[in-house]
User: Fold this.
Amino acid sequence: MTKFKVQLRQRNIPKSDLISDIKKVANELSKNSLTSQEYSQKGRYGVNTYLRRFKSWNTALEEAGLIVINRQNIPEVELFQNIAKVWTKIGRQPFGRDMEKTNGNSNVSLGTYENRFGTWNNALLAFAKYIETGKLSDESTSQPIEPTPGKRTSRKINWRLRAQVLIAHSCICQMCGISPAKDPDVILHVDHIKPWSKGGETEINNLQALCEKCNVGKSDMYEEN
Ligand SMILES: [Zn+2]
Assistant:
């Protein structure tokens, strides 16, 4: 007689079971926190089950009342800089799915934004506020983007001003109208309308979005003048 055993795939394990198994493993190891690696060695369920049900390992830890060690506490400014990068690369406002690291555009996962801001929409709102005002979500003072009167601006266009210009112009080249949203090979530059070397300031009114082709054409034109 042979013993015949099938393994049925467990679906919809109650969250309470998932939570109590994390607690059980933490208890066995006498720890007040638990990495997913530690859990995977002793736990009853797969780590992927936790990620699917709780969106992140840290959320599962929180719900189990364990200490969340956030080794990857990325500064908010970096989270926004990454949104700006993806937005200007794809030429339109990113959806949550555009932030999946597997798409190759984002350095930060959608889950990180959801953990930090609750939802992707909230992350976008916080981003828009930062780009516009320079205010972080926990800051009340703003970093003015405007130059101090009487003093020349720096020639360098920082990433926030660059994002401001590109987003204000819907990531469209202001000379030929091409956009990375239509052609992913298009790279947009932010360029001084009146060159900085000729007294043009680095401020939003003197900056424009140009594709690589038009930008090269434009600098030639200025050399002739
Ligand atoms: Zn162009």
Summary: Residues 194 and 200 are 5 Å apart (CA to CA). The chain has a mean pLDDT of 87.
